[in-house]
Prior knowledge:
- The chain is an alpha/beta fold.
- It folds into two domains: 1-101, Rossmann fold (3-Layer(aba) Sandwich), CATH 3.40.50.170; 108-215, Formyl transferase, N-terminal domain (Rossmann fold), CATH 3.40.50.
- The chain contains six helices and ten strands.
- The chain has helices spanning 13-24, 42-49, 65-78, 95-100, 121-128, 163-186; strands at residues 2-8, 29-36, 54-56, 83-86, 105-109, 132-139, 149-156, 190-193, 196-199, 209-211.
- α1 (13-24) packs across α6 (163-186).
- The longest helix has 24 residues, at 163-186.
- The model has no long low-confidence stretch (mean pLDDT 97).
- Bound molecules: 5-O-phosphono-beta-D-ribofuranosylamine.
- 5-O-phosphono-beta-D-ribofuranosylamine (GRF) binds next to α1, β5 and α6.
Amino acid sequence: MKRIVALLSGRGSNMLAIAAALRRERWPAQIVGVIGDRPGAAGMQRAAEQGLPTALVDYRAFARREDFEQALRQAIDAFAPDVVVLAGFMRVLGAAFVEHYRGRLLNIHPSLLPAFPGLATHRRALEAGVAAHGATVHFVGAEVDDGPIVAQAVVAVHADDDEAALAARVLESEHRLYPMAVRWFVEGRLRIEDGRVRLLDPRPGEARLLHGDGR
Ligand code: GRF
């Protein structure tokens, strides 16, 4: 059984989507720990309700980022994970941390990277007038929202979209995209070659690009 640790700051819907998929599809994997960086995050409550072990590393208790990341590393490594998934984890992670988990640290970002790294992606996509938006799962690299891309989901931007409508459509695609990508990882089917990801033994219908609704 592969051991998954999820890190979150907020509502935790991506963590729950992964938890549901691994049960439904009987992956050779389990979520062994859910770690939050702030008290009261809804996702921590939801994890506890599911019987998942939780831990809190409150970033406000640390004056320096290095000390927070040291404590976070200890909390993560206590669960002995094979893979660490960032699921709405709202802290920028330093180089030493990223290096420690190189090749086993995944993130989901709500845009088609390399477009719109950072925050407020849906508003910025609307302002830019793009016709396609979406989400990206990637291995975490040294820069923010950077690193080898595992898979992307594309959704259409509709003429009458506001930020909330677009965010909801992207989130729905995230809930299909992230479980798919984590499953590939735990099945040992992802290789990073020259900074790019290759999916080994693709099965019929499997692709690194998911299409959302195409109204
Ligand atoms: C998602 O949009 C994810 O792409 C971004 O943060 C949000 C987390 O949502 N990194 P949730 O906590 O998984 O519901």
